Amino acid sequence: MTRSHRDLEIPSDVREENAASESAPVGLPDTATTVEQKSTAAAFLEDGVHRFAVLGIWALMLLFYIAVEPHKILQVATFQSIFGSQEPLVFLALAALCTFIVGEFDLSVSSVMGLTATAVPVFATQHGMPIALASLAALGIGVGCGLVNAFVVVVVGVDGFIVTLGSSTLLVGIALWLSKSTTVSGLSVGFGKIALTNVLGLPLSFYYGIAIALIFAYIVSFTPLGRHMTFVGANREVARLAGIRVDKIRFLSYVTSALVASVGGILLTAGLGGFDASSSPGYLLPALSAVFLGTAVVQPGRFNPLGSMVGVYFLASGILGLQLLGIGGWIEDVFYGAALVVAVAVSSLVRRRRGRS
Q: pTM value?
């Protein structure tokens, strides 16, 4: 007796598979996978916004300046002015960064730079020292200032903010005494070549800044020393319990900060042919603004060398553009001051958000 196709027996495993397929919604992806993908994409997008927001603002700012004053902005001289005259701020920002990364604070970097920049022409022109020896002597003075700061802060235990604030004023006074409160100049043109030699349209000092920023970034990101510095800055006591020599790292951060600032001072006086000691405090606010602005670039919420360098040129572009638009010289102080406040606020918000996540 034949049976219809409805009466044919279906194997149990096939019936179970068919039942499972009929009960499952057709064409709908796995909900968990979809949510995870969306979450990953959102996190990636948010991270990209944090890392490159300042670069985007920089681009928009330049486009605005170009639209308003294309004949002034789109000139080689403007480009050279932005990128060829900021070497002192790059070195100062990196000098300050040496202590910021380990949780310390050095307000004396600009005064160390100023004292070094003053000592070179004083030793060379007034005391007859060979320029190489004068530079080494000035470098030694700058490093000595860092050693004194490190000793008082780390060994004696005085707050770094107070120590470096006081030493900053002290060093300006010493520089004014050394120079008799006058601008000391008269350095040879040959000495200026170490900073002013033109390479691809920019002075050699620009490439020094790029090189030291890249070296610093490599040390911080890819070496045990850099990881220890970051660890000390994040939590000093935990780092100590982990076996890290915290006080040694703190001590060396002040010395290295003074060394970098001193090299910047030598290059500064080489480029200018001399130096006015009373002008050194004016370099501090721009450098600090760039450092804090740099925490919103490359590594959001963290002090980092490449971000600080971007901060220097971002601020320089903004100020020069406004000046080319006819805004008075007062805009420089307003721009740097506002940038510092905004940068610190943004850095605090990003760190707080990263801590919650």
A: 0.81
Dihedral sign of CA atoms 268, 113, 213, 255 in order: positive
Token reading at 140: 């030694």
**CA 246, CA 240: separation in Å to the nearest integer?**
6
Q: What is the pLDDT of residues 43-100, one digit of tens each?
A: 444 554 556 677 778 888 888 888 888 887 788 888 888 888 889 999 999 999 999 9
Helices 189-196 and 204-222, packing angle to 10 deg: 50
69 Cβ contact list (under 8 Å, min separation 6) = 324, 325
Q: Which amino acid is at 197?
A: T
Separation between Cα atoms, residue 83 and residue 200, nearest integer Å: 12
Helix (H) or strand (E) holding 198: strand 198-199
User: What does the block give as tokens for 340?
Assistant: 């510092």
In the block, tokens 């480009």 appear at 79
First to last CA, the chain: 72
Any residues with CB less than 8 A from the CB of 16 and at least 6 apart, and which? none
Rounded to 10 degrees, the C-alpha dihedral 160/162/163/166 comes to: 150
Over residues 216-230, the pLDDT tens digits come to 999 999 999 999 999
CATH class of the domain defined by 72-356: mainly alpha
Do residues 341 and 329 make contact, with C-beta atoms less than 8 angstroms apart? no
Sorted by where each begins, the domain ranges of the chain are 72-356
Asked if residue 350 lies in contact with residue 295, where contact means CB atoms within 8 angstroms, the answer is: yes
CA dihedral 248, 348, 314, 278 (to 10 degrees): -60
- Long-range contacts of residues 45-51, Cβ cutoff 8 Å, at least 24 apart: 47/300, 50/296, 50/300, 50/301, 50/350, 51/297, 51/298, 51/299, 51/300
DSSP 277: G
Phi, psi of 243 (to 5 degrees): 95, 5
Would you give the DSSP letter of residue 184?
E
